[in-house]
């Protein structure tokens, strides 16, 4: 990429533009996306912060943006509901707000903390006394050191039992653990600085993936885990490759080109930075316009586009984790479906894990259903074993309790597509459904057939109030995946017909 892009004057200008865009989105959070037209925003204290943290890298690395070396920082915004002093928990007890686990929001790949600008006020008003939305280490206005795996010694204690015999598998495990450490340890350092015993940790897309990695390493600090359309959950299946091979030749060629670039470490950000400035800006603006029809205000689109653009145009850092964590098909090298089932919680009943997907989400909701099924089976087996035990000391804590929610009229960016219903889903996941108005839009809840049939009260909590729908209903609700499969199958049939026609014509010509 042109060196001139990263001259100190250019970086300073981009930082100023990013801060201006952040301030504009924060103003929208305070004034436009409020629970009621005349809601008093002064009841909520918003603060932009920069929290100093030690670098997780094994040797000192200068931040490419701010120049600091020994002390790096995590940037973010906090919201405090000044009116809230006590809230009843799900068990009906009153707990001082400062003792409640705050909501910590982690953004997705190449995004930032203010992607949640439509959600902050509503979440604060209805349920959460404290909210923190963070710029992950290496993104946004947090420090951006070089992403160097050699400086990230993997800590394999949490998952050592996953892969011990296969050499290639062990190397994959080390690579993934090193990449995850960059984010997990910086988040843990931030938690220590804020002296938070526990967090309700909610992550979107890549932020959801990294939230799981954090919960594996530090389950004692996670009250609940909420995964918003997380990447990397399901295992890769043979059908996935077969569908790709059934695509028309030009689409298969494009897909393989993208895969090659991906494996070479080319990221969306590095690709944008390689383009002429006018071209890269127009690509981002087109993305916002076409991907987010819910944003009707032109100025809002402009500010969000500027936020995304300047975030991507600053020197790359955290973005280079991509090919170390995922494969080119957006499948995780170490899928979360099995990892979540192994999370060891201090809660004897198991940690609550909530999946939230958009109705038109391109991320595979079936990963959430499969995770629930796997955890349910493991829980059932352990419960049977515990019935035979005579000593309480011999009992082991259960695997997570998993829930799957669906948000209407939303795609992958559900915090922007339908912020009200996503807010409801987050509040329900945190046990605050009773605080929502009766006419407030609420998500649907789905369960795997085994859980629904068993009527498991541990998993189907609240089922007396809210209906839990079956897998068949989930398949009808999450239409984007079905449409995508149908399109691939149709194109595959068309391609087969074309091939058959060509073969038939060739045989006729040969016979004549």
Short description:
It is built from 17 helices and twelve strands. It has 512 residues and is of the alpha/beta class.
What this model shows, in words?
- The chain is of the alpha/beta class.
- The chain is built from 17 helices and twelve strands.
- Strands 1-2-6-5-7-8-9-10-11-12 form a ten-stranded mixed sheet, sandwiched between helices.
- Strand 9 (352-358), helix 12 (366-386) and strand 10 (401-407) form a beta-alpha-beta unit.
- Helix 1 packs antiparallel against helix 9 and helix 3 (167-194) crosses helix 4 (206-217).
- The longest helix has 33 residues, at 479-511.
- The radius of gyration is 24 Å and the shape is globular.
- The termini are far apart.
- Residues 1-5, 85-92 and 158-163 have low confidence and may be disordered.
- Count the helices. How many? 17
Structural class: alpha/beta
Task: List the uncertain runs.
Answer: 1-5, 85-92, 158-163
Compute the separation of the termini in Å.
58 Å
Q: Please state the overall shape, judged from the principal axes of the Cα atoms.
A: globular
Q: Tell me the total number of β-strands.
A: 12
Radius of gyration: 24 Å
Q: What's the arrangement of strands in the largest beta sheet?
A: 1-2-6-5-7-8-9-10-11-12
Order of helices and strands: HEEEEEHEHEHEHHHHHHHEHEHHEHEHH
Largest sheet: 10 strands, mixed
Into which percent range does the helicity of residues fall? 40-55%
Q: What would the average pLDDT be, to the nearest integer?
A: 85
What fraction of residues sit in β-strands?
A: 5-15%
């Amino acid at each position: 990429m042109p060196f001139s892009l990263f001259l100190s004057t250019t970086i300073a200008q981009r930082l100023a533009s990013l801060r201006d865009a952040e301030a504009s989105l924060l103003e929208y959070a305070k004034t436009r996306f409020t629970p009621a037209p005349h809601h008093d925003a002064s009841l909520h204290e918003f603060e932009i912060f920069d929290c100093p943290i030690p670098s997780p890298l094994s040797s000192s690395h200068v931040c490419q943006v701010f120049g600091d070396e020994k002390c790096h920082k995590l940037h973010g915004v906090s919201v405090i509901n000044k009116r809230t002093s006590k809230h009843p928990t799900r068990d009906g007890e009153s707990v001082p707000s400062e003792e409640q686990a705050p909501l910590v929001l982690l953004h997705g790949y190449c995004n930032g903390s203010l992607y949640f600008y439509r959600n902050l006020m509503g979440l604060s008003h209805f349920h959460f006394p404290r909210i923190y939305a963070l710029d992950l280490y290496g993104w946004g206005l947090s420090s951006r050191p070089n992403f160097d795996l050699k400086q990230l010694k993997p800590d394999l204690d949490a998952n050592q039992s996953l892969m011990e015999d296969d050499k290639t598998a062990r190397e994959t495990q080390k690579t993934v653990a090193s990449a995850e450490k960059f984010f997990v340890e910086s988040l843990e350092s931030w938690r220590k600085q804020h002296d938070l015993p526990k967090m309700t940790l909610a992550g979107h897309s890549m932020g959801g993936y990294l939230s799981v990695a954090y919960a594996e390493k530090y389950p004692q600090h996670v009250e609940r885990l909420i995964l918003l359309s997380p990447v990397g959950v399901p295992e890769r299946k043979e059908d996935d490759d077969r569908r790709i091979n059934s695509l028309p030749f030009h689409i298969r060629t494009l897909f393989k080109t993208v895969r090659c670039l991906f494996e070479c470490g080319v990221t969306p950000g590095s690709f944008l930075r390689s383009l002429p400035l006018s071209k890269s800006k127009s690509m981002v603006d087109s993305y916002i316009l076409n991907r987010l029809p819910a944003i009707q205000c032109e100025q809002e689109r402009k500010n969000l586009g500027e936020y995304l653009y300047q975030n991507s145009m600053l020197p790359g850092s955290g973005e280079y984790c991509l090919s170390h964590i995922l494969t080119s098909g957006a499948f995780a090298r170490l899928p979360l479906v099995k990892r979540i089932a192994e999370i060891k919680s201090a809660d004897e009943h198991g940690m609550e894990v909530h999946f939230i997907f958009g109705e038109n989400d391109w991320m595979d909701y079936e990963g959430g259903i499969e995770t629930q099924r796997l955890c349910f089976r493991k829980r059932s087996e352990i419960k049977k074993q515990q019935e035979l035990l005579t000593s309480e000391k011999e009992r082991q804590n259960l695997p997570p309790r998993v829930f799957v929610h669906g948000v209407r009229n939303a795609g992958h960016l559900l915090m922007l597509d339908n912020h009200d219903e996503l807010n409801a889903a987050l509040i329900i996941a945190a046990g605050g459904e009773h605080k929502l108005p009766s006419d407030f839009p609420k998500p649907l809840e789905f369960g795997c057939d085994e859980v629904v049939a068993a009527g498991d009260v541990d998993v189907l909590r609240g089922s007396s109030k809210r209906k839990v729908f079956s897998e068949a209903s989930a398949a009808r609700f999450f239409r984007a995946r079905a449409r995508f499969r149908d399109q691939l199958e149709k194109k595959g049939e068309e391609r087969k017909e074309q091939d058959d026609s060509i073969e038939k014509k060739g045989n006729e010509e040969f016979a004549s």
